[in-house]
Amino acid sequence: MLGINRKLANFEKSDSYIKVGLVGAGQMGRGMISQIESMKGMRVVITADLAIENVKNAYENAGIDAANIVETDELEKAHAAVSQDKVIATKDSKLVTALSEVDVVVDATGVPNIGAEIAWDSILNNKHIVMLNVEADVTVGPLLKKMADSSGVVYTGSAGDEPGAIMELYDFADAMGFEIVALGKGKNNPLNLESNPDVTAEEAEQKGSSPKMLASFQDGTKTMVEMNCVANATGFAPDQPGMHGFEGKVADLPGIFIEKDKGGELNGRQVVDFVNGIAPGVFAIIASDKAEVNAEMKYLKMGDGPNYVLYRPYHLTSLETPLSIAKAYFDKEPTIAPHYGLQGETVAVAKKDLAEGDYLDGIGGYSVYGKLYKVEEAKAENAMPVGLVDGNVKLTKAVKKGDVITYDAVEQTKESTIWKLRALQDKQ
């Protein structure tokens, strides 16, 4: 089977290219556009963002002449632009999903409700959808995958995102018949459950990133949803609510991820977790019951067993997304998808004492953070998924700092796509 690079090169030689539609021209989207302009057989033909200058700058920074960038929200003008090998800048995300020339849509918005809308519209328009939006995936991904499967298109997470990088290690080890004990990632910064945009403002300005996005990393929500995504893809689960968050170096991992009664730190096997001290890497802890395999692993300097670590010290975020685009287009396969349905649930927890009538302001905000539970535990508590917190959710009773926010403590003041899809998913 040809590698993706050769498939793309051959595609370009036949005067064809994969036509990509992108929603979101923030940091991730901009990097992806530039990376794709360096590749063969692929191009981002249309990009939507409410800040249209972000789209134009992204294209120009990728080396596209301003004369070849067409700004329009009209379908006919967009058709004409693609036929002339020009690219489109638009404020209308629905133009991206409706444009017939687009083969694969990428959601790089990071907003759960918008991501759910984009995925839904893409599938209805028979387009493959790549999600750089793990928050939407862990909330309604199982339903979107079923819908995509029924429509003959691919619903997938992205290579380069940590869940996608972990899944590559999982697939590699699973294909060889190893037992996979645990899957995980390094955390880039100390856990601060009270982080909010005020806390992160200065650092975010220095890094050129969003204060809310940075807060969602610091308060642990991003780590929780990423490992939730891995759990849904593999059938694994957190060993305890919120996972352990061990401290250690790569060499320590095989000894940490052993059951407590055998001298390790785990309550069970097939777990997802995170480790402070190995960022930005991802890992799989593997084992074998075959003496010859263990002897070979020792010979290969993989350690003395019984566990071994596979470690990847990098993930290139949206720069790797084109690999998932190509895999969906050529091979009709996802990089990562919720094959096991909901195995975990990242629930909303109060960051501070909240009063009746307060509105929950969303991921990376001032009111809530996410905490990963096994799905059965979340259901038992009637816990609300953090992906449903969108600024239109009002508390009907007070909630203490550190308490899980339950469905009976909230009311939705404005309808949203992600709430509708979640209700439909919960009925299945």
From TrEMBL:
<feature type="domain" description="SAF">
    <location>
        <begin position="345"/>
        <end position="411"/>
    </location>
</feature>
<dbReference type="InterPro" id="IPR036291">
    <property type="entry name" value="NAD(P)-bd_dom_sf"/>
</dbReference>
<protein>
    <submittedName>
        <fullName>NAD(P)-dependent oxidoreductase</fullName>
    </submittedName>
</protein>
<feature type="region of interest" description="Disordered">
    <location>
        <begin position="191"/>
        <end position="212"/>
    </location>
</feature>
<dbReference type="InterPro" id="IPR005106">
    <property type="entry name" value="Asp/hSer_DH_NAD-bd"/>
</dbReference>
<dbReference type="Pfam" id="PF21135">
    <property type="entry name" value="DRL_cat"/>
</dbReference>
<dbReference type="InterPro" id="IPR048423">
    <property type="entry name" value="DRL_cat"/>
</dbReference>
<dbReference type="GO" id="GO:0050661">
    <property type="term" value="F:NADP binding"/>
</dbReference>
<dbReference type="InterPro" id="IPR013974">
    <property type="entry name" value="SAF"/>
</dbReference>
<dbReference type="GO" id="GO:0016491">
    <property type="term" value="F:oxidoreductase activity"/>
</dbReference>
<dbReference type="Pfam" id="PF03447">
    <property type="entry name" value="NAD_binding_3"/>
</dbReference>
